[in-house]
Every structure is written in structure tokens, then in C-alpha cells.
Design goal:
By secondary structure, the chain is of the alpha/beta class. Helices cover about 50% and strands about 20% of the residues. The strands form two sheets. Strands 1, 2, 3, 4 and 5 form a five-stranded antiparallel beta sheet that branches. It has a five-stranded parallel beta sheet with strand order 6-10-9-7-8, sandwiched between helices. It is rod-shaped.
Amino acid sequence: MKDEKFWREGMDGKRFALCSFRRFWFFGAAGILGAAVSAGLYLLITVALAGPPEYQVFSQYRIYFDSEKYGEIQDYYNAYTWGEIMKTDEVLDYVMEALPEGITKEQVKASVSVGAMNDVKIMPLTITTQDPELSETIAEAYVYGLDRFGHSIEGLSGMDCWLLEDAQEVPRGTKAGNAALLGLILGAAAGFFAWLIWYCLDDSIYLEADFENRYGIPVLGVLTEKRDALLQKELETALAVRLKGKERICVVDAAQAAGRKESFSAGSGPEVRPVKSSQEWEECSWPFDEEAVERMKQSGVLLLLPWGRGSGRMAGRLVSRLEKLQAPVLGAVIYGAKDGFLRSYYGYYRHSGKKGGRA
């Protein structure tokens, strides 16, 4: 139908919030799944696929600048500069003098790194290899090499090793918690956006306005799961006024037409029919035969709409079919609604003895 553009309907913030609250379990499940996948991938890459363990030696050097001759020369050095200098031949030639045969310059270059320097005069140096003895050997060679280098280059007056630790295995998978947290956030966000897309495309009937705005057919009332007394009274009054003067009413249940289990089936008429009603209520099952169509044309049709997910599509199809058959639709009744949902949306008191009404 040309008016069945539910994706163009305005956003009802309260309806959206209430529907979202009912999906918190989905957002949580998506977040937990995202956390598990993220942490699993992180551990797989950093532990299972990372190869043999690595061993690291941490050392610290005091750099003495020749400020009397060159002024504030330390301003030209930083961690990046020293990291590059440690791999130059000016340093490596001295380092190689202290290393045994069999260790190449390429091995030394690949093993050395300089950490962040909070003080330009204090340089943290790290040696990392897959052999603890090799890491310690190269670190000790740098002690000798940097002492020679510090006395040979202009601008420096020396470099002393203040700290030289033993080789320690490099820990792996230490950021699994951070990876899990990131996965949790991304998973929950992905779940929310997936739900948002589904919500925009969902044509389910939760409120009277959902049906009325799409098809221009009045909803005469709502029956809740717990048979709210106020809503029951409201429905009886609306039916009595709307169906006044009718001798026969044809009732069509959208759930029965869709084959849903919650259909009221043959008992739908007595559930909706007002106590004092004098009309004859007849249930017309879909698909309609020719005789049923003639009776519906003469008496009019009352639609019964199940509340909740999946109800809108079949209801729209029934309305379209009835229009084509020229059977007038007198109104609709929504049944099976969640009491808590309607109470939260409309703000009414369920117990008729309490003061209050619909907001």
C-alpha cells in the first residue's frame, strides 16, 4: 500500500527507548562476544603465533655533554636521535670489538633500541634477542663500546653505564584486558547499530498509533496479557459506540491469518465482545471464501491484531486485501500487549482503585 511507509514514520523517542530497554540483553551479549573475539585474536597473535620467546636486557647510561666548549649541545639530541646513533658504524665498530666471533653487525642492529628519555642526559638502552645469553653479551659489549664512543666524538665528554640488568623474558599477552575492553565496546556498539537498523525496518505493532498512522483505521482498544481493567473498560465502551446498530460483526484475526500460535482462534470473539453486546459475532478465517466476503461487505470487519514483533506485515496485507474486496473495516483491537510496556509508555495505573489515568 502506498501509505505503508513505516520506515518514513517519525521517531517516537519513548517508544524507541522502551523497545531498546527490552534488548539490553542483546547489546550485552554482543559486547561479551566482541570482548571474547578481540581478546582471543590478541592472544592468538601475541602468544600463539608470535614465535619463540624473546629475552631483554635493560640498561641505563649517563651522557656527559661538553657544554663548556659546545654550549647547549644537548638540545640537539633526543630519543630518536640516540636510537639511530646506536646503530651507526661509529658506535658499532667499538661494540664489535667486545663481541665474540659469530655475532654480526646485523644481529646487533636488530637487537638494540632506545626508550623514551625524560632527561636528555639519561639514556635507556634495551637489547632484545631470542637468546638470554646473547642479549647479555651484546648489552655488555655496549657498555664498552659507548664508553669508547663517548670519549671519541665531539660534543661529548663521556658515557657511563649506571644500570645493567640481567636478561628477562619479554612478557606476552599483557594487554589482553585492554583488547577485551575494546572488543566489549565495539561489540555493544555494533549490536546497538544492528538493532537500530532492525528497528527502523520493523513494522511491528506496539502502540495504537503504529496501526492508525499507517492505514487510517481506528484502533478501538488494547487487551493486555493480564487483562488490565481500565483498558478492558475502555475497549468495551469503544466497541459499544463503534458497533452500535450493527446486527452482525465479522472478526478477522491477523495472527490466525499468519499462522501464529498466539492466535485467539475460535475463541477470539467472546474475548473481545462486550458483555452487553447484542450483535452476532462471526470469525472469518483467512483466506476468505466468496460467502465470507459477502458477509463482510454487509456487516463490516473488526480486525484483531496481535501485539509485538511481526504483527504489522500480515495486518497490512489483510487491510490491503479487504480494501480490494470492498469490505469495510470498522476498527481494530490489539491483543496480547505487555502490561509493563503500556504502563511505562502511557503512564497509567493498572489497578482501577488507584487514582490516576492515562497521561
